[in-house]
Design a protein that fits this description.
The chain is mainly beta. The protein has one helix and five strands; from the N terminus they run βββαββ. The protein is globular.
Amino acid sequence: MFKSHKNGRDDAWEGVVTKRSRGMLDGSNMYHFVEVRLADGASLKVRISRRLWKSIEVGDRIVSRPGADPVKG
């Protein structure tokens, strides 16, 4: 199950990447996503930067702190 609320820049979370995906949702821009398994077992689908998306693989840990973009952790 995914979290029901949209995650924002002020949310803090940490987890392990379980899936990477990308798509052209609006037909002209490429968006990069990862699915993250949090410590409590919940899943979270997060939009991330292309640079981070290219640097991570399934099994890597990523961290998001309030007011900052997610980073490889």
